[in-house]
Amino acid sequence: MATVQQIRHAQRSDGPAAVLAIGTANPASCMLQNDYADYYFRVTNSEHHADLKDKLKRICKNSGIERRYVHLDEELLGAHPDFSDRALLTLRRRARRPAPRPPVPRTLRSRNGCSGGGRALQLAKELAENNRGARVLVACSELTLIGFYGPQEGRLDTILGNGIFGDGAGAVIVGADHVDCIERPLFEMAFATQTTIPETENEITTRLMKGGLDFHVSIRVPKLLKSNIERCLIDTFESIGISAEWNDLFWAIHPGGRAILDHVEQLLGLGVEKLAASRRVLREYGNMSAATVIFVLDELRRRRARGEEVAEWGVMMAFGPGITIETMVLHAAGSLKEN
């Protein structure tokens, strides 16, 4: 009879989990950032809030974003004008959809906000390494519709959210012990950890209300992250016995906003090209919450294929409610060809 140790060993993979494939998608409707404030106040019949409109224009101008993709266009709003009024619409109406088929085990992660993609990839790593032969599909889909409301005096969170968030979906297949000639690892997942910044539970919050998702993001978030990120990185690399110079790594930082990227770059003394993947995703798509870090990984894959990024080791980081910091050490696996 097999021992518990033998059974346990047989279930585990021989090698580390790796990202085997990446896919991304966006809605067809593209919104230029310079036009968004006029669009938003027009479709929500809120032109009388002139001060709030000016604030949104300033947010859009300083966001580092050029365009975003959104599912909610004027045609859809015309058919459903109650979408922009948090007092009229119910979640039941927004969330009607058929139940998924049951055969494949699923793990649902909800309301993790911008850290959701990082946390899902950590969970996928654990599943792949502890279930020999498993292939784990990570799917992150974000729609701003659930949090789309017209502007209100005293609710600057609504203005901020409408100034930076966009819609997108990202998917990753994670597995260990890849099959030669069939699978090609992109990034090996060497180590993953999560840190929660003490006494920050009210800095980023999400609440499901009758009319949709009500969220709050404190203006202190960029500075709080700046005060804690380097300690997280030092602790992470000490845990695995690697000494790293920050500019010798590649970086997949969740672009929660321009200020966050600026603070990280300044704090770590990074060269201007080190956050190029994150800045491009922010510029072209905005903040797509959990899906964004998958877009950044995909952009890094392209940059490596073109020879624009050559570092062998790197870091992925995502930030969300808690405040939580999700950190993963990545190892670039082999050479990549441009697709």
Report what the structure shows.
Keywords: Acyltransferase, Transferase. GO terms for molecular function: acyltransferase activity, transferring groups other than amino-acyl groups. One of its GO terms (biological process) is polyketide biosynthetic process. By secondary structure, this protein is of the alpha+beta class. It has one domain: Peroxisomal Thiolase, Chain A, domain 1, CATH 3.40.47. It has eleven helices and eleven strands. The strands form three sheets. The chain has a seven-stranded mixed beta sheet with strand order 4-5-1-6-11-10-9, with helices on both faces. Strands 2-3 form a two-stranded antiparallel sheet. The longest helix is centred in the C-terminal third of the chain and has 19 residues. The protein is globular and about 75 Å long. The N and C termini lie far apart (49 Å). 40% of the residues are buried.
CATH superfamily: Thiolase/Chalcone synthase
Along the chain, the helix and strand elements come as HEEHHEHHHEHEEEEHEHHHEE
The major beta sheet can be summarized as:
7 strands, mixed
Sheet/helix structural class: alpha+beta
Strand order of the largest sheet: 4-5-1-6-11-10-9
Average of pLDDT: 86
Number of helices: 11
Q: Provide the low-confidence segments as ranges.
A: 335-339
The CATH architecture would be 3-Layer(aba) Sandwich
In the CATH hierarchy, the third-tier topology is known as Peroxisomal Thiolase, Chain A, domain 1
Distance, first to last CA: 49 Å
